């Protein structure tokens, strides 16, 4: 019997991308259900998602924007009841969401307990690499494991890994914090190169503010993890 695989997609104001994101994964035979959590969007994200024809898709609409961590936890309440494998995908992947198939095969083959999507280099010039460098160095310092895609939110987990967490942490440091914990618990992580694309932040004020928040949250998470694992 094939494992039950749930995909959770937190989405905020993604009416332009969510249809393509869903259309390109709904027919992947290994995927059993897709849970879209509309994180209080002010556009038609929920409406567009509900119009995609598939018995696999469930749309949860939150009354207000509470952030990605809250949306993931909301989706997990549903997914954890049935799933053997749970995946997180962003709502803005568009047609490149089909690349999730590259993550499914290695986890089904027991090559690792967690599979992380490694994106190709960004097309748009973003920051100066401070955030990515901090994330990579933090995980290496804490675990001795060198990973390139520590900030990637596209991940597949065996259920037993997620059962170690009472809830998904909130804030921009969530991926780094979880990666450290997963490795410290002794689980195996594998990165897989995918040809995924999503919205990129540029070298404008909005982009620098976003990266500043990421940097602050990662530093905060690192301090917390050093206390927890000393």
From TrEMBL:
PANTHER family according to UniProt: RFBJ PROTEIN, UNDECAPRENYL-PHOSPHATE 4-DEOXY-4-FORMAMIDO-L-ARABINOSE TRANSFERASE-RELATED
Instruction: Say which species the protein is native to.
Output: Terrisporobacter mayombei
Which residues does the UniProt record annotate as the domain Glycosyltransferase 2-like?
6-129
List the CDD domains: DPM_DPG-synthase_like
Q: What class of enzyme is it?
A: transferase
Q: Name one GO molecular function term.
A: undecaprenyl-phosphate 4-deoxy-4-formamido-L-arabinose transferase activity
Q: What's in the keyword line of the UniProt record?
A: Glycosyltransferase, Transferase
Its lineage reads: Bacteria, Bacillati, Bacillota, Clostridia, Peptostreptococcales
- EC number(s) stated in the UniProt entry for this protein: 2.4.2.53
Q: Which gene encodes it?
A: arnC
Out of the domains of life, which is the source?
Bacteria
State what protein this is by name. Answer: Undecaprenyl-phosphate 4-deoxy-4-formamido-L-arabinose transferase
């Amino acid at each position: 019997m094939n494992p039950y695989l749930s995909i959770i997609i937190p989405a905020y104001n993604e009416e332009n991308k969510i249809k393509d994101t869903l259309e390109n994964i709904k027919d992947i035979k290994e995927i059993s259900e897709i849970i879209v959590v509309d994180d209080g969007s002010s556009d038609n994200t929920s409406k567009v998602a509900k119009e995609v024809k598939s018995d696999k898709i469930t749309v949860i609409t939150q009354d207000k924007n509470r952030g990605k961590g809250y949306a993931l936890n909301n989706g997990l309440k549903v997914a954890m009841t049935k799933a053997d494998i749970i995946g997180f995908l962003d709502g803005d992947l568009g047609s490149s969401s089909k690349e999730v198939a590259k993550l499914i095969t290695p986890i089904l083959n027991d090559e690792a307990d967690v599979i992380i999507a490694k994106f190709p280099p960004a097309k748009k010039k973003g920051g100066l690499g401070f955030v990515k460098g901090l994330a990579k160095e933090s995980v290496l310092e804490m675990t001795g494991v060198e990973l390139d895609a520590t900030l990637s939110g596209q991940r597949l987990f065996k259920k037993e890994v997620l059962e170690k967490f009472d809830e998904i942490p909130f804030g921009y440091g969530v991926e780094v914090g979880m990666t450290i914990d997963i490795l410290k618990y002794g689980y195996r992580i594998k990165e897989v190169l995918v040809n995924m694309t999503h919205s990129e932040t540029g070298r404008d004020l909005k982009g620098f503010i976003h990266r500043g928040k990421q940097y602050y949250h990662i530093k905060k998470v690192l301090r917390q993890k050093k206390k927890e694992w000393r």
